[in-house]
Every structure is written in C-alpha cells, then in structure tokens.
Amino acid sequence: MKQNITLSMEKDLIREAKILAAQRQVSVSRLLSEELQKLVEDAKDYEWAKRRALIHINEGFHLGGKITVTRAELHER
Question: What is the pTM of this model?
Fold first, then answer.
C-alpha cells in the first residue's frame, strides 16, 4: 500500500532534483522513492552481514587438522 508524505527542502535542491528526475525520465516522487528504497535495502543488507560476521566470530572457524594431544600434554615440562 502506498502512502503520501510531505517533505521540506531547499528550493535549489528541488530544482536540481527535478532536473535529475527529468534526465532519468521519472518523477521526483519516483526518484526519491527509489533512492529511499536503496538506502533501506543497503541498511538491511549491512545488518544481515554484521550479524553473520558476529556469528562467525563467536563460533570461530575450523581451519582443518586434528587435535592429537591435550593441552596438558603440550605444556608438560
């Protein structure tokens, strides 16, 4: 469901946005909507990647090999 919002911007910014939208053959509303959608998606992707990275940090990585001795055996004198 779509809903309208009201924005307040400087006149110069509005003028530049209209020019940019015209160059891309879209409305200012669509231009802003697409850019906001990208920002939201990027933020979600970042949070997902951050959670995955934290999981990997907490779990650690198996780098191969086998443990054949105990810690105590390694530190015997």
Answer: 0.67
